[in-house]
Amino acid sequence: MQRAHKLLALLAATAMSCTPSDEAQTVDADLGEPRVAQMPTEAGDMPPAIVGNGGPLQGSDVHYIDGDGQTTGYIAVPEGDGPFPALVIIHEWNGLVDRVREVADDFAAEGYVTLAADLYGGQVGNDAEENIALMNAATEDMSSVVSNLNAAVRLLRARSDVSGSVGAMGWCFGGGIALSFGLDGDDHEATAIFYGRLVDDPEVLASMDHEVYGTFASLDSGPAPEQVQAFETALRAAGIPNDLHIYDAVNHGFWLRIDQDVEARAAAGLDAWQRLKAYLSRTLR
């Protein structure tokens, strides 16, 4: 318990850079919900959303916390009977926007039932001031953030078309939250971090029970390369397998928006995607 309190305090202090039911009922996947055709990317291709080619949304909104009608996630489900592995994806500091929903569709096309979580109660920020206010409000009680994501995992595991294997991933604010959830949330099988808040205490990291994926940028200051290296050292000291990489000549936020600077970001983005696909395959399939 002391370890958990230490981590929650650490993450709550970095916000500037609805409790669900404990009982899960089996959910029949054949609910007439929209489905996404399975079309995994081929070698040399990236998912359409991150290069600015996301199409019309193919999933649906979902209220996944009992008694909470404001928290509105987005679920994208592959065509077919499954069972499929599942993912919870966690938004950046501005909230659950369409770019993140489009990424959920892309993961469904890869064969994952994907739930984009909502940590802001249906709100999104329109500028830095609003984003910071939303982050501060969300992380004031980190146990509520973990409970939110626990509810997302329960919803996925309760589906008849989910295999039971669930991973979590996020970007920036969401990357740090994914790490927190990997340490303090209900058991799941994968944690993927894109330039999120890190922990460099092996004693805290020792509670992680699965391999960790991480993509970072050499030009970033949050986290800076030396912070990533300290994280990797701590993971190794804790005996946690990991696949971390710092990409040259790119900055914070590069992977989710390759289209903002294709020349600088495309090669790094493709390599990060290939690593991510391999990681999710070996941890969830």
Describe it.
- This protein has about 280 residues and is of the alpha/beta class.
- Helix content is about 35%, strand content about 15%.
- Helix 1 (about 1-10) packs antiparallel against helix 5 and helix 4 packs across helix 5 (about 175-185).
- Mean pLDDT is about 90; it is low at about 1-25.
Descriptive labels:
285 residues; alpha/beta; Rossmann fold; eight-stranded mixed sheet; disordered N terminus
Layout of helices and strands:
Layout: H1 2-12, E1 60-62, E2 73-76, E3 84-90, H2 98-109, E4 113-116, H3 128-139, H4 142-158, E5 162-171, H5 173-184, E6 190-194, H6 202-205, E7 212-217, H7 225-238, E8 242-247, H8 262-284
Parallel strand pairs: 3-4, 3-5, 5-6, 6-7, 7-8
Antiparallel strand pairs: 1-2, 2-4
- State the domain count: 1
Strand percentage, roughly?
15-25%
Biggest sheet details: 8 strands, mixed
Per CATH, what is the topology?
Answer: Rossmann fold
Number of helices: 8
Query: Percentage of helical residues?
Result: 25-40%
Question: Which structural class do the helices and strands define?
Answer: alpha/beta
